[in-house]
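Quick illustration, no need to memorize.
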Amino acid sequence: MEALDVLESKVGTTSAPEVKYGEREISEGKLITFPNPRIGRRYDVEIELPEFTCKCPFSGYPDFAKIKLTYVPNERVVELKALKLYINSFRDRYISHEESVNQILDDLVAACDPISMTIRGDFSPRGNVSTVITVRHEKEDA
């Protein structure tokens, strides 16, 4: 029996694997918002996403970070499961630390138009170097 035949008999076929439900949810996901239950009250929403990952656009090595999001909602609030799926969509993207954190801010501001928002990407050390990127948004008329 050829080595490939043995491998196929142990793990099934060598055809392309079917898309898993989590992968499908991530690829189909979009940021979802809902009405702020306390419009007019200024309050902070703090969210930590400790398992952010993307790929270095130069080396292809994976980068890992904890993303911390703090915002003051205006009329809309970000739905957490949709946010999780959105963040997971960066997993296979070749994107720099700086661009990833800025892109997250741009997308969240477009989705929920907050009064203010700060996003902090605390990237794990790689090659003895760690990076922290902090970006901010302030609504001009607030």
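The first strand starts at residue 33 and ends at 35.
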